[in-house]
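ESCALATION

Customer reports they have been waiting on this structure for their group meeting. Please prioritize. Original submission:
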Amino acid sequence: MRELRECNASGALDATRRRLLLTGIDVSAWAIAITTVTWFRLARDATYVDAVRLLCFILLVLAMVPVVGMAARLYQGRVGGIEESVRLAWVALLTGVLAAAMDFVVPLVPQAIPMNAALVAVVIGWSARQVIRRDYASTRRVIVFGAGDTGERLARSMMDVPDCGYQPVAFLDDAPVQRVSRIGGVPVRGTRHDIAKVAARTGASLLVLAVPSVDAEVLRAAHDAGLEVLALPDDAPEADVADLHVLDAVAPPAGAVREHLAGKRVLVTGAAGTIGAELSRQIHQAGPARLFLLDRDVPGLHDVRGSIGGADVLPVDIRDSEAVRGVFARCLPEVVLHAAAFQHGRYPLEAWRTNVLGTYYVLEAALSAGVRTFVNISADEAADATCVLGRSERIGERLTADAAARSGGEYLSVRLGDASPDAVRQVLTQRPAGVAAPPLDPAHLLSLALGDNEIAAMTECAGIAS
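Update from on-call: job pushed to the front of the queue and completed.
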């Protein structure tokens, strides 16, 4: 993750350097091509060419090359790819035609030189790009699952920053409307059923999820094909390669899980996210009396409900205390799995509002509704809380432990490595001890989450009296 974030920090600079490098290659290729073609013509025909006119022609063409290249988007996309090679040929042809037209209007060099130089420039530019491409041969080949806007932005993020070591080689998507031939030069090769075939054909080692949630079938297919799976955090504001984290294959619910959930009223918060969605699918297989899906992402909730064949949708933001309390009072759940969390460390205020205040509101509503089993899905960052995200998760664990002391039921936290959704058995069949915690007041929570220097500003923003 550190390498990815360093890559993200320098991403814009790397993309600019790459464009400047390719522009310089093309300009140099044309300068060499015109000079070479002219020299061969002089050697063959002993034709006189005025040096001043030749220099003027070269300068005019060199000024034309980057303009035509940028207009044709030649300097975007994968270095040395098929799409770039086609664009390179078109740019050379168009530049040659424009140069020939200019030379026809104002004769500067023999008329055969522009088009002959275009052919030589294509060969030089293409060869240079193959050398650059070999320099990035260590990049990992990536299949992007999801050919929508998020998938396209992720693929472009990878291609714009080649130093990050990711090269998109194929898209997969289950939606027929997304099965176009190519997106940003990357081919769309099928659906989830083609994961193994596409991985073998492309030599990919990674599957990147660019959809709000996936079921266990996709993760198992990736595991069977030997692919590592990466996904974006549920709350990532942008599709950025630096935000990708590792997911593991999901195991089906065990018999103990079924016994624990069968016939119970179960509520899952964050049900539209990757973790919450997979939990919801496996819980549905266990046969609960009612399954309630709570999230502020309404389209995501309906997608999850559609994938499991039925559940009660609760479009509620956990940061709205009154709404949360009202939902719990109406639904009266017996088991709550709290998977709603903000996992983007660059926005500390949002982490505070969701992971601390939101968890507090859900816990208080659960206590008021008489919930007997409450599982807080935490993350490994809470173990060594050196950043705002980890501290907010840690405080959520302490709030859960405090609620456990007041409940008379079973309130506990489970940490999942890299926020992986593979641990239904861990979440529901293991019984990790709750984190011991003294009573926490808002001012103390702020000091834990942010440090004393930021308490005043955050207190004002969050509306909490310190």
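Sent to customer with the following note: Residues 1-13, 249-254, 418-425, 429-466 have pLDDT under 50 and may be disordered.
Escalation resolved.
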